[in-house]
């Protein structure tokens, strides 16, 4: 039926469609008495009819309510959108950790000693170094990884003095289009993926004596460490983290002299490819006879030779006119396929030159060796993933990080003595976890509350005794006594038993899991085993006992005062007493007076 064409059974007007007891009525007739006009069935006011009985709040109030509603909806929508954006653009790391924080970024420039975990090279597996990482040491590091990293465990990162709790990034969607990607740029984003997943097997900034561990030169002829031709003022990113800091550039390798000018590296393992990076400068044109860096007019070449070859092969030629000037210029050359071997040497050489001039210099020479292709899909990587996960869990538990829970300790058979194997671990740096601190604060609050209650009751009782203002009733000016009304509330045993069973099962299950996590059952089953000693963490045990006490007390209060559940011998109805004297403001439920 069309509501507009339907007649009201009472006023015969055409109007809104309302039906009850097989009849149709308009709004005014349907709601005039709160019951159906035809059969007197209750018809409560709802919707527009109910709203019509309310006072008009005004345009300002309505507009304000709409504005607040719109604001709440907008805040919720923006919050959900930001949460989704944060989750979808969070950086990913080599070992699968989640960078911690709101919109985290890979803002740590780190240098990792690859030899700290596994050798790079023949038999080494060509895989990333496993955690815990070892910071580069200029005196001892042979192979180095320089990359951008993020923090995945802030507590462990802070308490280990920035040695643990971070991982190398392999992707960072928010930064990939906003930060430079070249090592020559300021604060570059160096993701450990693609052509950046590898190891610097050679690195020499010429600030230390030649032929050190990280830069094994096999031969240098007429090349000296000096600043005669200046130094590279824009060194590549080498990391600055965990106590490692590269020195200021003060020297370069300058070539002068007669007969021969060259520098040859030792054999490098570059079976899976890589690149050679360095900074080159040739003497600028000058008429100053006293200049230490004489003008250059002859080219410099870069060559390689493998262990099975007999001749050097040129794969880079650098004309003097292009690299002659006041500044060092960055050079990067991919290593040719024919040069890939487990022992390839590289040579910097000036084939022909004028002995009285043609000076040139190189600085910040580095050779980068790629990891094996698809290293992240290899069986060895999966095996190392499990090994490093166990190491990271141990470190988290040793430092009492929030990311190590009681079941992590149980599943990993945690033992405090294993913490000594963590590089740089110091027991004084471990802290109470947040959950343990909260329990401690609750204990202090409970003690303070109890002392405050004792003090208040004592002084209140003393003041009442001194002033003589204790009375069980009060009188009106006419001398009449207000009476106290009382009634009883009888318990409903069925639903009380249901609630008691649910809460008791939850408490028993929690206690079982707690004892299991503490290793009590394991200790009981193995207490007679030879050489087995049950070990427990005293701080953790005390925290658990306090938590159990607080939880048990809270459940007892919930059962007795909210659900009115008590032992069977006390299952009596509660007497409720109310004083009708408005000045008394007295009410008592059972034995508890409510002033």
Distance between the termini: 62 Å
Q: What is the C-alpha radius of gyration, as a whole number of Å? A: 41 Å
Largest sheet: 6 strands, antiparallel
Pick out the low-confidence regions: 116-124, 467-481
Number of helices: 11
Explained architecture:
- This protein has 595 residues and is an alpha+beta fold.
- It contains eleven helices and 21 strands.
- Strands 7, 9, 10, 12, 15 and 17 form a six-stranded antiparallel sheet that branches. Strands 8-11-16-13-14 form a five-stranded antiparallel sheet.
- Helix 8 (434-467) packs across helix 11 (538-562) and helix 9 (493-518) packs antiparallel against helix 11 (538-562).
- The protein is elongated.
- Mean pLDDT is 79; it is low at 116-124 and 467-481.
Secondary-structure map:
Layout: E1 18-20, E2 23-25, H1 27-30, H2 47-52, H3 59-88, E3 92-93, E4 108-113, E5 144-151, H4 154-159, E6 166-171, E7 198-204, E8 217-221, E9 223-226, E10 252-255, E11 262-265, E12 274-282, E13 300-306, E14 313-318, H5 320-323, E15 329-334, E16 344-349, E17 360-370, H6 379-398, H7 406-411, H8 434-467, E18 484-489, H9 493-518, H10 520-526, H11 538-562, E19 574-579, E20 587-589, E21 592-594
Helix pairs in contact: 8-11, 9-11
